[in-house]
UniProtKB/TrEMBL annotation:
EC number: 2.6.1.2
Protein's name in the database: alanine transaminase
InterPro entries, A to Z: ALAT1/2-like (IPR045088), Aminotransferase_I/II_large (IPR004839), PyrdxlP-dep_Trfase (IPR015424), PyrdxlP-dep_Trfase_major (IPR015421), PyrdxlP-dep_Trfase_small (IPR015422)
Residue ranges of domain Aminotransferase class I/classII large in the record: 95-219
Gene: Alt1_0
Protein family according to the UniProt entry: Belongs to the class-I pyridoxal-phosphate-dependent aminotransferase family. Alanine aminotransferase subfamily.
Originating species: Elachura formosa (spotted wren-babbler)
Pathway: Amino-acid degradation; L-alanine degradation via transaminase pathway; pyruvate from L-alanine: step 1/1
Cofactor(s) the protein requires to work: pyridoxal 5'-phosphate
């Protein structure tokens, strides 16, 4: 593969979250943690620590937010169910009873966590998501219409890849998460920015939104 033979859309993709600043931060981190690295000495830097804030990951090393313990306990039991099947007396000294009961309940639905599931996601979990939506929004939700994805980025990317054709316009808020423009570039679609209003709590302005659509239509971009 070369730059001349790969999908040309890839060359237009820019993902600033993993871009130049993030790469430079990683180099500084390596320099600070590996004193024998060639080049500039670590003690020449005006700082002794790098905190990467380019992604929403407060549990990363350096920020060290403590994760919610309950889910870590449940997941660890699901990874090794023999603990609550045959060593209940031992794990009760470590795990609280509610974590053990939730792990048992989910194990009945899921089975092995190392196995493939339905492409939409586990039905029992989709039912819980549907119930949450119903209680939050006051409208019925169908578990069969819910698709679980490996994070928000995967979901957004899948939707944009399915919904857009080459040259289509897609409204995106500014400021925006770079995933949007990167994915639009990959599918050869056109980003149509609309600016959020800082003085109004970063809310969306209907007037600004309509103006962005008018400009796109004027330029002949399908919206």
């Amino acid at each position: 593969l070369t730059r001349d033979t790969i999908n040309p859309a890839v060359l237009e993709v820019e993902y600033a979250v993993r871009g130049e600043l993030a790469l430079k931060a990683d180099k500084y981190h390596q320099l600070l943690t590996s004193p024998l690295a060639p080049g500039q000495a670590a003690n020449d830097l005006p700082f002794d620590k790098v905190v990467t804030a380019n992604i929403g990951n407060p549990q990363q090393k350096g920020l060290d937010q403590v994760p919610i313990t309950f889910w870590r306990q449940v997941i660890s039991l699901l990874e090794y169910p023999d603990l609550f099947k045959n060593h209940l007396d031992i794990i009760r000294q470590i795990y609280p009873e509610d974590a053990i009961e939730r792990a048992k309940e989910m194990h009945e639905e899921i089975g092995s966590t190392g196995a493939y599931t339905h492409s939409k996601g586990i039905l029992g979990i989709r039912k819980r998501v549907a119930k949450f939506i119903e209680e939050r929004d006051g409208y019925p939700a169908d578990p069969e219409s819910i698709y679980l994805t490996a994070g928000a980025s995967a979901g957004v990317s899948s939707i944009l890849n399915i919904a857009l054709q080459k040259g289509d316009g897609c409204l995106i808020p500014i400021p925006q998460y770079p995933l949007y423009t990167a994915t639009l570039a990959f599918v050869s679609a056109v980003p149509l920015p609309y600016y959020l209003q800082e003085i109004e709590g970063w809310s969306m302005s209907h007037k600004v939104l309509i103006e962005s659509i008018k400009q796109a239509k004027k330029a002949g971009t399908p919206v």
